[in-house]
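re: ur question from earlier - yeah i can do the single chain one, its not a big deal. heres the input i used so u can compare w yours
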Amino acid sequence: MKQIKTYHHKKILVLGLAKSGVTAAALLHRLGAFVTVNDKKPFSENPEAQGLLEQGIKVICGEHPVELLDEGFELIVKNPGIPYENPMIQTALDKGIPVITEVELSFQISEAPFIGITGTNGKTTTTTLIFEMLKAGNKKPLIAGNIGTVASGVAEEATRENTIVIELSSFQLMGVAAFNPKIAVITNIYDAHLDYHGSKEAYIKAKANITKNQTEDEYLIVNADQNETIEIARQSKAQIIPFSTKKIVDNGAYIREGWVWFRGEKVVAVEKVATNIENILCAVAAAKLSGVENSAISQVLKSFTGVKHRLQFVAERAGRKFYNDSKATNMIATINALTAFDTPVILLAGGLDRGNEFDDLIPYLQDVKVLITFGQTAPKLERVGKLAGIKKIERVDNVDKAVPVAFAYSEPGDVILLSPACASWDQYKTFEVRGDIFIEAVHKLK
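and the output i got, formated as tokens:
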């Protein structure tokens, strides 16, 4: 890592722990800063804070006392989950104290260039695909961010020979100052996290931070099928690399005659795979810009079974293929899943009722032969299923019971897809728990 002197003898407050806060606090301490850590969890229940205290770092736990800011801090490193409306953050900004996230810190110390991936849907899959393609191409990638290891921890170990492939949320991107990836990727933008950002405009502005420091020497891979992403591209100084699932785009990635093309070159054949085409186009563009050979790209796509809970291939039973897309907590994600298949689908859907209807799904339900519903939204999904002309619709108690019912209605060649279009919290603690129950139920089938 770069032995920077930026923080030597500077008073820095790390607000909120979890993995990123612990890593950032320890790193800043090694860089010679006078670090104070403030976390809401009581010290007696906080092993992370206890460990930092043993390293000689000042720790204040149990609350976020605003008066702590009177101690003359020159910087705050904020946990991404803490909203900017938090009184500590608001007071700090009023006092003119800069607030960053540890992603910014990772960029400052890294000897390796970054490939940064953001967007509403598909970030994790795209990040994983890019990492695997670079690895297959012997480019020595490291993976970081929301997937993998804390960014500043990865950056501390990286050398000039590495490339850090990092998934970035809007929360993290709000706290960057100089962060500048060699390649930035924006998969898509839909309404999300508006409770945190306050408006779609603020959400888009946060996403746009991924390219705000890029120059004409860097690249921005951007969705050419969305007005929101096109507008971000217009404001960027980077070289724009568009991708499209709908049209041929100059200087970018697109589908033509069953192949992925990049800058006029036929790269890899795309048979129907359980990975969103948008994700593939993003990953191919980033890999080609990084000098990866077509053979390595093809090798990855042929063997890739998906990230767990994200259109993940689970198993084949008696000619039926099962896919776990429990991460599909909104309609857009379920639409993306449905468009990945051209075979008959038995769809398992339902979950938390957030007040919305599901009419946007109707055009994409044409290949759904059976709809199995569960959870609070079961009646709403059944209504749109009938409007879409699905002949067999059945309600069950939960995901565990949905699997054998779906199998009973299925035939060889069918896809049985868990893609709920809803959050899990009416029945399950997380979408991961929901997906694990689906996987277990598939493996219990006789």
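Residues 104-303 form a domain with the UDP-N-acetylmuramoyl-L-alanine:D-glutamate ligase fold (CATH 3.40.1190.10). not sure if urs matches, ping me
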